[in-house]
């Protein structure tokens, strides 16, 4: 039965492989049996009705929740039940459903936290003269400004992230993730609570990144954006994978239309 | 100024530096890393006890009725340093027990309970640090210096100031460095920090250890100054004195917390001792606590970031010539539009 899921038939290997993931919270089976692959260079969409278990899947992959069964392989290595920071160090960077920025840090500082951990952050360096970390810091600040220039948000560099609008916080999260130079970006509803104009601009950034070869797995509700960005798309319902394919294929699938695409 | 006034003021200076060291330690815990370190007084206590038992010499129980562990007479700088180290070492189990799995209100509660347990345990267990009576007659630094009581105060003030400078070096170094930024990020959002590849537990432990060292150092200084230390000197409520200093001064700002130290432990607690007393014995001290509590609430309501709030770190690219020239060019463009 399991072997019949479309994902298994189509792909043989991927940058990220989730196999038979399951997870319960206090008797509620949030994720029952989820398997899919994320191929390098794609934006894989993860859609489904509320409560389908999409965000839980993201949490399971990124180490925020522990699966009760199943495995996660990333870049050829088993990362099942790794801690969040261990997963991130391997190059798998996630964003959150609710914009999760460091409020009382400026936008640049937020971006600097995105750069991979380096020796300048050690206590021994902190207790020495500034020269012990100055150069590394300057390099990272320059890189942060490059990223902000690209997102046209340089003017917000020294604003506290907490003072920004919801949409701008989303962009800060995205820029911060870019600083990490991820192999795979997990986006949990990147357009949630963002006005349509800004959503479009985020959408364009994501397209650019995809064209540069960035791999992403994205949970999103706004189907027009999903259609524009994502291929393939994995549809979840009741904690399981219902189907997988391009938007056109899914629209032809009666089960999917009944469960989600309905109207 | 009369000699007694000078003596009094230099004493205030000593207490200021001793409290400052502790407040900066707590600021590393609470102001930077965001740990609700309600057991902070325990770090000061362990520093004081360890410094005590490393400088008192063997307990002469039949004569003094004192019992305590170790009992060696080491040079005072070493004993003081060991006090600081004891605070740093204590931070590791505290981090494990109270901080690793607990957050927010639960963490605060666990810390408070830890402080209560530690105090009761030390008071009840007479064999460790002489129980409820505590340690006394701890030798002072430069004790064999043949100077008057008045002049000795200046000597101790210099020592306390040196410890203040050392603490500044540690706290300032952390505050301005990339490590300080990681700690502030930990305070703001642990989940985001972990999602960017930093181990929150490791960072929290670093902050606890560094702050614990300052707490222990402050305790060591205190026992060397007042020459005695017992469970009554470190009731859990003392921690709130430091918290109030931080909240009023400005958490995360070393200058602000120094101002808070001047206002609360020195201004409210020490200076008011000179005011005319009223009511029954002890009523005045009770009112001090009322004043401290009320002041803390007022600030939390109306000025939560304190008198000197945390400074915003403005960063600009340094080695990037292009953007350096960009700014005037843009200003020029704006000017011509007008």
What features would you describe in this structure?
The complex is a heterodimer of chains A (263) and B (338). Helix content of chain A is 39%, strand content 22%. In chain A, strands 6-7-8-3-9-10 form a six-stranded mixed β-sheet, with helices on both faces. In chain A, strands 2-1-4-5 form a four-stranded antiparallel β-sheet, covered by helices on one side. Chain A folds into two domains: 2-101 and 167-261, P-loop containing nucleotide triphosphate hydrolases (Rossmann fold); 103-163, no CATH class. Residues 1-11 of chain A have low confidence and may be disordered. Chain A has helices at residues 6-10, 54-62, 84-89, 107-114, 123-126, 131-150, 166-179, 196-211, 223-229, 247-251, 254-261, and strands at residues 16-25, 28-38, 43-47, 69-74, 77-78, 92-94, 184-188, 215-219, 233-237, 240-245. With 338 residues, chain B is an all-alpha fold. Chain B has one domain (3-337). Chain B contains 14 helices and no strands. In chain B, helix 2 crosses helix 10 and helix 4 (76-99) runs antiparallel to helix 10 (200-226). The chains are: A alpha/beta (263), B mainly alpha (338).
């Amino acid at each position: 039965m399991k072997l019949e899921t479309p994902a298994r038939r189509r792909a043989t290997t991927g940058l990220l492989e989730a196999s038979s993931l399951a997870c319960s919270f206090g008797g509620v089976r949030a994720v029952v049996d989820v398997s899919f692959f994320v191929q390098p260079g794609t934006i894989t969409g993860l859609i489904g009705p509320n409560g389908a278990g999409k965000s839980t899947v993201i949490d399971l992959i990124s180490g925020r929740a522990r699966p009760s069964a199943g495995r996660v392989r990333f870049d050829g290595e088993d990362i099942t039940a790794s801690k969040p920071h261990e997963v991130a160090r391997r190059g798998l960077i996630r964003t959150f459903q609710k914009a999760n920025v460091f409020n009382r840090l400026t936008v640049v500082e937020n971006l600097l936290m995105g750069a991979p951990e380096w020796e300048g952050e050690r206590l021994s360096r902190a207790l020495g003269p500034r020269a012990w970390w100055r150069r590394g810091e300057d390099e990272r600040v320059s890189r942060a400004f490059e990223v902000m220039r690209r997102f046209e948000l340089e003017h917000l560099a020294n604003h506290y992230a907490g003072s920004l609008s919801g949409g701008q916080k989303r962009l800060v999260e995205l820029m911060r993730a870019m600083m990490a130079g991820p192999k795979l970006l997990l986006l949990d509803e990147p357009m949630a609570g963002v006005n349509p104009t800004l959503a479009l601009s985020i959408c364009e950034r994501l397209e650019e990144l995809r064209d540069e070869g960035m791999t992403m797995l994205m949970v999103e509700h706004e189907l027009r954006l999903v259609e524009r960005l994502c291929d393939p798309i994995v549809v979840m319902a009741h904690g399981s994978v219902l189907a997988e394919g391009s938007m056109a294929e899914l629209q032809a699938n009666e089960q999917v239309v009944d469960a989600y695409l309905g109207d | 100024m009369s000699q007694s006034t000078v003596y009094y003021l230099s004493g205030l200076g000593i207490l200021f530096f001793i409290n400052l060291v502790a407040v900066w330690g707590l600021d590393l815990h609470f102001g930077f890393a965001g740990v609700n370190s309600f057991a902070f007084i325990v770090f000061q206590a362990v520093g004081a006890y360890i410094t005590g038992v490393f400088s008192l010499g063997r307990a002469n129980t039949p004569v003094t009725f004192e019992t305590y562990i170790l009992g060696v007479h080491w040079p005072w700088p070493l004993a003081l340093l060991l006090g600081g180290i004891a605070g740093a070492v204590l931070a590791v189990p505290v981090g494990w027990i109270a901080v690793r799995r607990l957050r927010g209100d639960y963490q605060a509660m666990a810390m408070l309970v830890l402080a209560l347990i530690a105090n009761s345990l030390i008071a009840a267990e007479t064999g460790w640090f002489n129980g409820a009576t505590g340690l006394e007659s701890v030798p002072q630094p430069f004790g064999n210096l043949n100077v008057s009581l008045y002049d000795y105060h200046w000597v101790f003030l210099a020592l306390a100031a040196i410890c203040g400078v050392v603490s500044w070096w540690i706290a300032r170094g952390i505050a301005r460095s990339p490590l300080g930024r990681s700690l502030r990020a930990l305070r703001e959002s642990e989940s985001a920090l972990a999602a960017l590849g930093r181990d929150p537990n490791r960072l929290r432990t670093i902050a606890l250890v560094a702050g614990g060292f300052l707490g222990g150092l402050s305790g060591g200084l205190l026992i060397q100054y007042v020459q005695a230390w017992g469970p009554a000197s470190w009731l859990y409520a003392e921690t709130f004195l430091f918290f109030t200093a931080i909240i009023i001064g400005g958490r995360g700002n070393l200058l602000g917390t120094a101002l808070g130290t001047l206002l609360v432990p020195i201004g409210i607690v020490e200076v008011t001792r000179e005011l005319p007393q009223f009511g029954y014995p002890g009523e005045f001290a009770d009112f001090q606590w009322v004043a401290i509590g009320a002041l803390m609430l007022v600030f939390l309501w109306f000025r939560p970031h304190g008198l000197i709030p945390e400074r915003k770190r403005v960063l600009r690219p340094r080695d990037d010539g292009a953007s350096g020239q960009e700014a005037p060019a843009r200003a020029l463009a704006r000017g011509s539009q007008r």
